[in-house]
């Protein structure tokens, strides 16, 4: 094995350059992984184009990418759960394990978490990475590296649906049918829901939602969503709404379409923080409005669903690039939303 | 017993007249109750002054009042849990018992509920009323009728704190220290919380909050609430916020003062339905924003706390009127918020 | 329509006679249903053969049968959710709707419940029955009456898995692969579990378990279950155990095979009440041992899963009889456990 | 500060000798604490007298003691939450923070936990100890060191009551009124319960239960518990039973006295693992039988209740010894159960 590796470095806004850097050395409880596939996340694109998300500001040189999979090539002296040669997917955030959030099972809220590709922590658009063995999960032989990389976004939908404690027999609405909307759809189906309405403005995405099992799809450019949801539910409204589009008006519409006692799950970050909500609907309807920040304790379940073929991540991938083309991949994802769903970089 | 009774009838906006009406006859599963005390609720005042709340419009003649207690004077043929002479408090809403909400334990959301003093259902500012024996609860000899009438508002605070699944050791903030804010305070204390911050703009109410066990009080006219809460919590924010003031700015402030993973409980109805909320705080902070509509399954617990002296409802009562003075009671409650907390009508 | 109907009446232990009885008349909130299919439940067989289950003693003449479906032929004056001609399945127990259990969502524990074929309440081995419209559920055109009758046993497995709050990614063990074991299996699969071990002593049942999606099956006559489970789980034990066999030794084994923090769900009634359990395993392992009594709030979810083809009830049916053959059906189910799974009576 | 300290070492069954040992040196995330008070736990007595508990076998020399408090005398280089001079209580078990149990909030089940006085990990009957700063909690100036040491047993009762999700208004039965029974009582009262029945065979303990707020007490030597509980509850049974006595017959009685839908919480370890339970009561009554192993996430809440004076730990202490008398303290606790409740060693 060589001493150095290729790394796709963000050197400025909209700029990626390939550099040679030393291959990192795993600590005693870490493994060294040869990266095989990295999904392009909306947050990567946002950092690439805008240079920041909220208070997180990129200071180049910086490495993007956090949805990934690979092969273990070396293990630390105290690692017992993995062997060189294991095909794995990696949970990108390592929490401290000691704070109140960590101790009580909500490690996604750990203030000390070290999360790939969230400034100032570098990500994984590169050939090798070291990672805590505890947050590295073997995958089945049948599962491709591409699919395994998408366990990360799947985790978001899986966690959101778990946090809402969804039950079979109920009706769910998903606002937005991009990658997160679609993995939410798949998670709901995996959890036994059959009556799911998917919404988007791009037909490609709605067609995919339909293929993946949405019973109804609504193109919000062509139909009035609130009205159409009322028709579908015969005036009752839905039991659960998942907002994954990150839109102001979609966020506002959540409380309009949900029934009394229902749940509104907010996953997508709108571009502006302040959104007018009908709080009387929240109070009189005794709603639960639940925010979602990443996920916790989802990888074993998501890997299991993927291994067992209960979710289809392969068909979300519409475009593929090489590590050298990381910049093109990010640009493509940014500019071709209507024609793409998931863009991946394969190594 | 006479055949007729006195009834305080709302004959128009701001008008109450005393009429004689027939005493009702209990059905086989009902009891006839001689009313002894009726609390004046903010909703009574609102109907009295404005003639409506949202879509609920008073069509006079109408009877207000739903927080009440009394003495059983007659029982229906199939009533087994009560006897004439029993001193009781009554849960004012009778749900259908058959719909999905009723069957799953959320009967407060029953669309077929019959609730006193919610148009077009008459309330209890009168001498006698019939009521389902199942929703009529005996009280201990030590408990006064006045206190028993206030089990109804106590239920709101008790339910809100239960829905939030509060735990001892956590920090709670209560926005508003009117009757609902104060019974929320008492419910939180009864459930083992010791670190509670009460907020209001009237000193009388804050003084009462302090007496009832609030560790900190903030007069929002004199101190910047968000800033003061951060000081008290050393920058961390609170675990739970209960909004009972029904204000637009207080509702907005809930998501500013709560910590990550915390809960925002919305109890008070703001005067305008649309309120700008910082939804990014909800999402990034993974908050639960929970609406509260009345209560369900609270009376046994609230009566128990009252019987055992674990809550103090007597000291909430600042002013008393007779049934003949019902109009004055409503006017007083409307015009003297700064000097009063709870106004009751005793018979 | 004639005035009378055929009824299969249990006239003594092991005796069924066909009688003519008047067709009942629905009350205002009831419907009259032409029965189309009735599943034979283990409890029916038990009453038929033994004349009692615990304190419930059959006093002939008595009508068995409670797993059923049919067609609405007449509706009461206040029924709005159904029409004559509707194809339906019926929840066999009508709770009081008023007691503490009913109000808090656990209506299966209602002490006043009226439940078909539980002495002294007659069941539905007959041509017509009246039933509360609220507990009568329309089924999709694609669903057969036979399948619809089996929503009742499905409810048991669906409820048991719901009460255990099962999560995808976890490992479940089902002791017993009779009808209840198999619907538990199907419910777990519907809720996203992929790693399920089914156990029985009859190969026919294990083969069915395999077809329905069990990843592993164990014939307890051929393999030592505890040992085999440890192998499968690499020594860790399972997350959930469902005891549906009603055996003493299977009940005892539950706490041996479950991992720390796991859940033991007891569904099957053992023939003797007192069973030696290793309580130190319960305490040190911090287990949840959860009893299951019938179900509550399951029909909408189960009908939805059936309508959507997410569960396969048809393939559970191995033998069919006519109403006139009800006695034979019961005898067959009693004597041919090894060769049958579900026996139904079709009309 | 000297280099060595006094340590009370168990040198054989029933033998304690005082030795001089080096004072330990805190790691960067640890603090050095001067021990001030150590409670004698039933497990300490058991190890002292029997040399083992189940699979945990003492290999002398061994140090007992894990309920403790003290004063911080030195802090590691990365400790931020504590200062020398801080008065503190210490959580005796340090979990790994990485396993599935730790990550999901159930760190008490961590297989890698390092817990004081659980062989082979030494305990704290000594002058100084080092401990993780994250598991060391400051106490209020009003709280004595003796009381602070008893936060550990309080945690058990607090956790058990929390795991049972107890609600005000419900009726609880506590079997056993030793230290754990009494802190369970206090935890239930702190969480708003008023109707609590305490049981024991020693009058001293029942008198203490009465003083601490039990509404009813039963001396099991004088009254038939099951019968008396039925009388108190008018035949209904209790909502919750907490078994803290660790008796075979008390464990058996739990399912007899609890009502349908109730909860049985097993805290005390019986001397024999196999106990005959009426499992039909568990199934038909749809009980939750919940094992309790230590506690997790309880210290902040328990310290808060103690600081606020909501629990009374001081009055549990009946006898005091010095470090030199540790052997006598253990012997006394073993031989004088009837006359003592909590024995502490003060330094």
Structural class of chain A: alpha/beta
Question: Level of helix content of chain A?
Answer: 25-40%
Greatest interface (CB-CB under 8 A), with counts per chain? A-B, 35 and 35 residues
CATH architecture of the largest domain in chain A: Alpha-Beta Complex
Number of DSSP E strands of chain A: 20
Label the overall shape of chain A. Answer: globular
Beta-strand content bin of chain A: 25-35%
How would you classify the quaternary structure?
homotetramer
Q: Could you characterize the architecture of this molecule?
A:
- Four copies of one chain form a homotetramer.
- The first copy, chain A, is of the alpha/beta class.
- Chain A has two domains: 4-150 and 313-346, Quinone Oxidoreductase, Chain A, domain 1, CATH 3.90.180; 156-291, Rossmann fold, CATH 3.40.50.
- Chain A has eleven helices and 20 strands.
- Chain A has helices at residues 42-50, 100-103, 145-149, 151-163, 179-190, 203-212, 225-232, 248-257, 279-284, 299-307, 326-335; strands spanning 4-12, 15-22, 30-39, 52-53, 56-57, 67-75, 87-90, 93-94, 114-115, 128-132, 136-138, 171-175, 195-200, 216-219, 238-243, 258-266, 274-278, 288-291, 317-322, 342-346.
- In chain A, the strands form five sheets. In chain A, strands 3, 6, 7, 10, 11, 19 and 20 form a seven-stranded mixed beta sheet that branches. The first copy, chain A, has a six-stranded parallel beta sheet with strand order 14-13-12-15-16-18, with helices on both faces. A two-stranded antiparallel ribbon of chain A has the order 1-2.
- In chain A, a hairpin with a 2-residue loop joins β4 (52-53) and β5.
- The radius of gyration of chain A is 20 Å and the shape is globular.
- The two termini of chain A are 16 Å apart.
- The mean pLDDT of chain A is 97.
- Chains in contact: A-B, A-C, A-D, B-C, B-D, C-D.
- The A-B interface holds A 54, 101, 106, 108-109, 111, 251, 260-261, 266-270, 273-293 and B 54, 101, 106, 108-109, 111, 251, 260-261, 266-270, 273-293.
- β18 of chain A pairs antiparallel with β18 of chain B.
